[in-house]
């Protein structure tokens, strides 16, 4: 009986903690519209998307990939835990329309709010690309520390993933990006795939790319971390 009571108490504690943790996350994609975001397309500019490159359907964010661009949050974030769930579509567009070209997308963060819209604004990227899911890309002179060494400030710099958690094309993948008091960690389907420290850019807006490949997002949620604590 004592064991049963202890086990029951532990169950309720864990359940309560899980519910609290879940409630801390806020969806920044409401499944209805792009409130809280603005769009940018390379040849169209800001908030002009006549071909619906970014479209909401069946509670999903459908990105056709037909033109390079992005949606970007209005809000600035510093320390956060972000979870996205995505699945590749079937359509591909130039320059990624060949059979051998990987489907590509990405989540960029730490984009200064004063940045002019362009392809691509400077920041840190979690690579969303076939077979490269979880690479770190550093754009427009952004830098981080990898194993104690500072990366060079170049236009584009790649830090390859250290592990693989990616599911096959056509299945839903879950990606978690944690930026916590100078530590950056990426998880793919629960597996830690990459990490870095001390980014040169501490806070900023977050964007989701359109980059030549059709993709669907069903979850984009974030938990802001107070004082950098999980």
Walk me through what this model shows.
The protein is mainly beta. The protein contains 1 helix and 18 strands. The protein has one helix spanning 2-24; strands spanning 26-27, 37-41, 45-46, 54-57, 60-63, 69-73, 80-92, 104-111, 123-129, 136-139, 145-146, 149-150, 156-159, 173-180, 183-188, 191-197, 205-210, 213-224. Strand 11 (145-146) and strand 12 (149-150) form a beta hairpin. Mean pLDDT is 91; it is low at 3-20.
Element order: H for helix, E for strand: HEEEEEEEEEEEEEEEEEE
Unreliable residue runs: 3-20
Q: How many beta-strand runs? A: 18
CATH architecture: Sandwich
Given the structure, what is the number of helices? 1
CATH class (first level) name:
Mainly Beta
Question: What order do the helices and strands come in, and which of them pair?
Answer:
Layout: H1 2-24, E1 26-27, E2 37-41, E3 45-46, E4 54-57, E5 60-63, E6 69-73, E7 80-92, E8 104-111, E9 123-129, E10 136-139, E11 145-146, E12 149-150, E13 156-159, E14 173-180, E15 183-188, E16 191-197, E17 205-210, E18 213-224
